[in-house]
């Protein structure tokens, strides 16, 4: 979920009046709020670090790159009217210039305290997501953040085109996380009049808050707030210090990579970055595999730093439905190659059994050698079958699959040739023995 924060200038008048009349109380409340915020930050970082370490040790994290599936959304939200301002205007007896009514200034202080309590409730909810205190239940929308944009992975259309358009999109319904469509608020068209101070981009996986990226939006426009020099905080420790060749909403036009935070290009297999939303159009194999599940796929690093996209996605693609959906070629390879290798193994086992039976029947000295050779052949081919199957399913790189298939075929052919030679030698020995026996018998008789 992404959030964009706005504080109107008039709010500072409210804060000023509150400090004037109840300075001690307001400072105490603000101090408590900052303490809770700091506690949440420390607890969340410690919790997520511990959780990642446990998951990695248990093998539950299948890669460093988180894949976007249906249910992952990216949202941008705006802080429009501060709760203190709303409370003040609600209690004001009459008139428009309610900030000049100093007789009701105690109501301003009360409203400000209520606003601080609302923010504490919001922070408590965020802490509950990090596994700390029990939260208040549903996401406390309306007290601090206002959603203005949402992207749902797999939903048709261009996320960037929607961002650049005008007017609302699906704004007749509540823009909750549970929806299955994009959302655009008409507030985006009034950016300059909203006096935006912060933007929070939140990544949500299967309705669970996963990552937050917060930007300073003072004096920004609708597009330039998403930049490295405005970054306040992020889940990646190297984002502020590492170089970045792309850090913008527009991203890489040529490849359709939007909301793109990228470290470096080095060819498809060596692209490093932190966050990407894939618009229609793909060039690299890792993009094509991911986009086979639909447009607007959202990828972000699960590590504490940047990740190599190709490697991260390949490690994460371990379930059969993800592998088979990447392309018709790779899905057929995943099915055909193990079956082919299994048939070759069965054929080889049959040949080995025949060789052993022949050797036993004729009672030749070479039977032990034949058995040893047969066992070695079975072991070698079995190992090759296992390795190739694992490579095909986990790596899912067509070039590697083709190379492995060629190697396996060569090995199998060589093994079959050896087996045939052994069989021929056994047959020759048997024939020679039989001929010698017949000659000896004839001479004796």
Automatic annotation (TrEMBL):
Q: Is Transmembrane helix there in the keyword field?
A: yes
Q: Which residues cross the membrane?
A: 333-362, 369-402, 408-441
- Keywords of the record: Membrane, Transmembrane, Transmembrane helix
Indicate what this protein is called per its UniProt record.
Answer: Uncharacterized protein
Which species? Answer: Branchiostoma floridae (Florida lancelet)
């Amino acid at each position: 979920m992404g959030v964009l924060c706005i504080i109107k200038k008039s709010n500072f008048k409210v804060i000023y009046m509150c400090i004037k009349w109840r300075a001690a109380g307001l400072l105490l409340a603000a101090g408590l709020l900052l303490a809770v915020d700091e506690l949440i930050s420390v607890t969340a970082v410690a919790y997520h670090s511990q959780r990642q370490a446990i998951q990695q040790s248990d093998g539950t994290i299948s890669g460093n790159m988180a894949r976007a599936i249906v249910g992952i959304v990216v949202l941008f939200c705006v802080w429009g009217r501060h709760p203190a301002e709303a409370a003040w205007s609600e209690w004001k007896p009459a008139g428009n210039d309610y900030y000049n009514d100093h007789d009701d200034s105690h109501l301003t202080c009360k409203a400000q305290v209520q606003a601080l309590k609302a923010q504490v409730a919001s922070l408590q909810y965020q802490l509950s997501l990090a596994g700390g205190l029990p939260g208040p239940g549903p996401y406390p929308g309306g007290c601090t953040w206002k959603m203005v944009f949402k992207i749902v992975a797999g939903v048709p259309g261009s996320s960037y085109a929607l961002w650049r358009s005008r007017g609302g999109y699906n704004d007749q319904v509540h823009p909750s996380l549970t929806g299955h469509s994009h959302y655009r608020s008409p507030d985006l068209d009034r950016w300059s009049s909203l006096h935006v101070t912060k933007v929070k981009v939140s990544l949500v996986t299967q309705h669970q808050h996963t990552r937050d990226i917060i930007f300073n939006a003072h004096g920004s426009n609708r597009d330039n707030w998403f930049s490295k020099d405005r970054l306040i905080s992020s889940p990646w420790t190297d984002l502020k210090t590492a170089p970045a060749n792309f850090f913008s909403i527009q991203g890489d036009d040529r490849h359709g990579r939007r909301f793109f935070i990228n470290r470096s290009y080095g060819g498809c297999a060596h692209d490093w970055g932190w966050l990407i939303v894939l618009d229609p159009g793909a060039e690299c194999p890792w993009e094509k595999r991911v986009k086979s599940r639909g447009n607007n796929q959202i990828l972000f690093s699960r590590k504490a730093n940047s990740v190599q996209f190709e490697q991260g996605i390949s490690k994460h693609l371990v379930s059969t439905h993800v592998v088979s959906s990447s392309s018709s070629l790779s899905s057929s390879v995943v099915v055909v190659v193990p079956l082919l290798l299994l048939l070759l193994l069965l054929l080889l086992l049959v040949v080995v059994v025949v060789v052993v039976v022949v050797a036993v029947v004729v009672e030749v000295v070479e039977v032990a050698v034949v058995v040893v050779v047969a066992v070695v052949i079975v072991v070698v081919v079995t190992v090759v079958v296992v390795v190739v199957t694992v490579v095909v399913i986990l790596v899912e790189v067509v070039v590697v699959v083709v190379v492995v298939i060629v190697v396996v075929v060569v090995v199998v052919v060589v093994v079959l040739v050896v087996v045939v030679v052994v069989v021929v030698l056994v047959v020759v020995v048997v024939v020679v023995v039989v001929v010698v026996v017949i000659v000896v018998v004839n001479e004796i008789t």
